[in-house]
Amino acid sequence: MPASPTIHRTVDDLRAAVSAWRREGLRVGMVPTMGALHSGHMELVRAARERADRIIVTIFVNPTQFAPTEDFGAYPRTEASDVAKLAELGVEAVFAPNANEMYPAGYATTVSLAGPAIGLETDFRPHFFSGVATVVSKLLIAGFPDVAMFGEKDYQQLMVVRQMVRDLRLPTEIIGLPTIREADGLALSSRNAYLSPEERQTATTISRAMRQAAELVRAGGSVEAALAEGRAALTEAGFRVDYLVLRNAETLAELANPAIEPRRMLAAAWLGKTRLIDNIAV
Length: 282
Ligand code: PAF
Hints:
Layout: E1 6-8, H1 11-23, E2 28-33, H2 39-51, E3 54-59, H3 79-88, E4 93-95, H4 99-102, H5 121-124, H6 128-143, E5 147-151, H7 155-167, E6 173-177, H8 197-202, H9 204-218, H10 223-237, E7 240-248, E8 263-271, E9 274-281
Parallel strand pairs: 1-4, 2-3, 2-5, 3-4, 5-6
Antiparallel strand pairs: 7-8, 8-9
Helix pairs in contact: 6-7, 9-10
Pantoate binds near residues 154 and 157.
Function: Catalyzes the condensation of pantoate with beta-alanine in an ATP-dependent reaction via a pantoyl-adenylate intermediate.
Pfam families: Pantoate_ligase (PF02569)
Catalytic activity: (R)-pantoate + beta-alanine + ATP = (R)-pantothenate + AMP + diphosphate + H(+)
């Protein structure tokens, strides 16, 4: 049977483990998660293993990135099965603090953002990136990993984290890994568990609509017409679209010259009570 990872509940405890590894000259990798681990997370762990000798997976459902109306209470919490999956991959450490450890009573410090955090998700979830950036900075400062892994599925999050790490001069290399998809194209997400069987079938429309819109753009068609077609396909399938846009892949700013800039298509849309996000390179 594979050895279980050591579970650390406090920052001090994690730091003691990391200091011991550092004294041995080992490289440390971190995979920040909110648990409910799926094969996308497992790919992040495998990729961390290629770059580090010791791996910390953090499991923390971060309250500050949820608005009061969102699914913080309902978010799946599956620590025992998450830890069993991580044992299979030989992960050495899990950092699973409680909310008080990350946000001690009376805490008054958060990270504020601009640049890639402006627009898109922020237009619909204004609290979100400040919560993400605050917790990710705390996790990186708790473990000071050499590398940390993030999925491209949350593309804007990845850009925000990269910018933050650059701006705060944190000594961690941020690695973004391609989105893992089901065979029918649906991007893996812990929130897919909320979909009814019928919604699960319809959910494939999001990646299909994006692929079709991307093909039209690549073929030299009008960007606005391609996006309008994509939005219409989603609405017709029963989605309520928050956004389907084409942006500069590095800055996430609106495209000044779509013909020569690196391009990323990003979408967020509701299917019933579930909000799905996805993105592709164009
Ligand atoms: O992508 C996630 O799972 C979360 O936003 C993260 C990066 C673990 C921060 O809570």
